[in-house]
Amino acid sequence: MRLTAAAFDCDFSPLVALPFGRDHAVLAWLLAALIATLVALVWLVVRDARDELWLAGERGGVLVSAGALERLAEEAAARDPEVVRAEADLSVRRGVLRGRVRVYGRPLGDADRLARLVGEAVGGALAAAVGAAAVDVRVTPRILSVRQLARYLP
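-> structure tokens emitted (154 positions)
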């Protein structure tokens, strides 16, 4: 605004109308307060941005968080006797449930077999819960050694 006023040869400054002094320290504090307020407003908007999925039913529906579906996927993966631990990371993009399930298997296990069986179990459990046939979940197995086993046991 000062540059515009100088270009038109006017003696105008919006800062004169403020009840604060023209000291640079006061203006710096005002700008810092303004930035802090803007950061707080952005945080209030972003903190509620959770992944949720609307599950429609005959007489309405229910809103399910991705966290609840992650626990369901972890429980479905843990049913396999070769699984020591499972960690799911799911999200909802454009109404499609996607994500990855990391599976830690017992020593001397078969990674391909574990990925296939756990993938079918997790996909089936999530498809039944969501009510959709298309669920994009990737299972990445990791077969543990005997030394690593103690670290991953529940």
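The chain has five helices and five strands.
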